[in-house]
Each structure stands twice: as C-alpha cells, then as structure tokens.
Write a structure and sequence with these properties.
By secondary structure, this protein is an alpha/beta fold. The protein has two domains: about 140 residues, P-loop containing nucleotide triphosphate hydrolases (Rossmann fold, 3-Layer(aba) Sandwich); about 55 residues, no CATH class. The longest helix has 21 residues. About 20% of the residues are buried.
C-alpha cells in the first residue's frame, strides 16, 4: 500500500490512522453519552461541533427528544437511565462520529444499510456537503445508491472489473449493468407485490 508514493509501513501508524474517518457495517457503540460517542472522548468535547455533525447525519431531532439531549447515556449495561437507539439511529450516530473526527479520507461501508428508504435518500442528498473537501469512498452492494458517485469501481472476484460513472457503466452493458438490472427488477417486483 502506498500513500502519496510512500509505503504505509514507513509512516507513523497513529498519524496514518488519523487520516481516516470511517463508518463500517460493524461498529461499537460506547456505553457513554451521545456526545462522548460522537467525539470518542470524555474531555474537551466541542458540543457545537457535535450538534453540527448530528445535523449532517440527520439525527438532531432524535437527540433533542432524548431526556438530556447530547448528555443522555446510551446503552443499559452500565447506566440504568441509558437509552437504546434503533439500528438506523445508531448508524446515523456512527456517521456523526466519522464527521466529527474530520479525517481527510472518509470511508463509508454500507452506511445506509440499516436506514429506511426515506432516511437513505436524505443521506444521499447531504452526501456532497458531508464529503466536501475530502476524498470519500462509498462502498455498497446496492447499485441504485451509487448514482451520485464521481467514479465507480465495480469489483468481481477481488479485482476491478469495470470503472466509470453510473451512466457510463450502464451504457457499457457489462456486469455492473446486469447487476443493476437484476436489483432494479427485484425492487419493482417487491413494490408491485406490496401494492397488490
């Protein structure tokens, strides 16, 4: 692995890791306050920044409704007054955490998997603002969610099989277009069954 032409093993590991903000499918929610979860620290938390990141992640109304707002404890294993968030709310909290860290490289691995379609659409609308001035990697199996990406790498068997924009890959008619057609058909059929 190279970063700007240098092997990453030559770099200070802590400094290298500091370059990345990430939202993974698997994550750990801290038994701590909302603010501590977002900032990933106990002291020196910039509460204004916490609120700004919660706003970008679409979680402001939820947190404002909690008993102590950003000072509300999450989880019930440590705190009796702890609050449990839904899967989608927790995923948004992890997005706020990544935004608070503010690394120049933002990696989002299926960041909307636990969100309903309306919440997912809201994240996509905010995506350009969230990623402004950063390198952003958006990893998804749902090809309907990749239309806003500047450059798509379609992987097959561990290698890059196709590369281009959403429209270019559809026009090419390769594996990306085939998979997109299958997924689109699945969603259409599901919608038709729900309407029947």
């Amino acid at each position: 692995m190279l970063l700007n032409g240098r092997g990453i093993r030559e770099l200070n590991r802590r400094d290298y890791y500091g370059l990345f903000s990430a939202v993974f499918q698997e994550f750990s929610l801290l038994e701590a306050t909302v603010a501590e979860n977002v900032a990933q620290r106990v002291d020196g938390i910039d509460e204004g920044r916490v609120w700004a990141c919660l706003e970008q992640a679409g979680l402001t109304e939820t947190v404002r409704a909690l008993p102590q707002g950003i000072h509300t404890h999450l989880g019930r294993e440590v705190y009796e007054d702890g609050v449990e968030l839904s899967g989608g709310q927790t995923q948004r909290l992890m997005l706020a955490r990544a935004l608070y860290k503010n690394g120049p490289i933002l990696a989002l691995d299926e960041p909307t998997a636990a969100l309903d379609p309306l919440a997912e659409s809201d994240i996509y609308r905010k995506y350009n603002h969230m990623t402004q001035g950063r390198t952003a990697l958006f990893i998804s199996h749902r090809l309907a969610s990749t239309g806003f990406c500047d450059r798509i790498l379609f992987l097959r068997d561990g290698v890059i099989a196709e590369e281009g924009t959403h429209q270019e890959l559809l026009a090419r008619g390769g594996g990306y277009a085939e998979l997109f057609a299958v997924q689109s058909r699945y969603y259409r059929e599901g919608r038709e069954q729900n309407e029947a």
